[in-house]
Amino acid sequence: MPHIQPLFTKQVELNFINGIPLLSFREIPQQLIRDTLKRCFDIIVSSLILLLTAPLWLAIAILIKLDSDGPVLFRQERIGKNGVPFFIYKFRTMFTNAPIFHSSPSASNDARITKAGRWLRKTSLDELPQFLNVLEGSMSLVGPRPEMGFIVNGYNELCRQRLRVKPGITGIWQISTDRTREIHEDISYDLFYVANRSLFLDVLILLRTIPALFFMKTC
Fold it and tell me: Which of 16-20, 121-125, 215-219 has the highest mean pLDDT?
């Protein structure tokens, strides 16, 4: 992936062993103040959003129950920071007989998606319960999207750099034009975030996420 090389000159070290070039990643120093500020920011923003959207949760729950049988919330195991699994929460958008671990729908006419689910996915309201994940500490507002275990099992050393930080509700990939591709098909956005993360960058990404939801959500 030569297009990401300029981004990691401070984190990547090139060594030669018997004439064979080997890439190694220098440890990114933990910044306690940065991480503490990020956690406080996550808690404050998530709490405000959950409080302001409480009536919307009730309306969505009623819509889901009227539209199809099954629970309101969908829970699925994903892989988080340092490879630790956790359960991600979403509003259910598919029928209960849909496979739990399968590729995500790429079109609005996917037979697995309910009528209410099409609207929830188009508006991204299906991801609203993930603010509960942020409050419990398994996710952050901004970070790489959490993948399913069978995808992470196929990661190489470079891809595993995504697991150095908490997964997020949104990130650079989500506001990019490459959102139509699978996350693991182009990880340069996530690797850039891991190497350059800051509270200021988080705020910029969050501000860009709102318009991106309207112009780039397809299903």
Answer: 121-125
Confidence at residue 4, expressed as pLDDT on a 0 to 100 scale: 45
Residue type, 175: I
Yes or no: say if 88 and 131 are a contact pair by the CB < 8 Å rule: no
Region 59-63 average pLDDT: 96
Percentage above 90 pLDDT, the chain: 56
Domain map (residue ranges) of the chain: 30-216
Q: Which two tokens stand for residue 67?
A: 């539209």
Buried b (16+ CB within 10 A) or exposed e, 66-75: ebeebeeebe
Whether residue 7 is predicted with pLDDT greater than 50 in this model: the reply is: no
Question: Could you say which DSSP state residue 150 is in?
Answer: H
d(CA 131, CA 162): 20
Contacts 24+ apart (CB under 8 A), 37-46: 37/199, 38/140, 38/199, 38/202, 39/137, 41/141, 41/199, 41/202, 42/134, 42/135, 42/140, 42/141, 43/134, 43/135, 45/141, 45/206, 46/131, 46/134, 46/135, 46/141
Length of the chain: 219
Mean pLDDT of the chain: 83
Q: What span, in angstroms and rounded, lies between the C-alpha atoms of 113 and 96?
A: 10
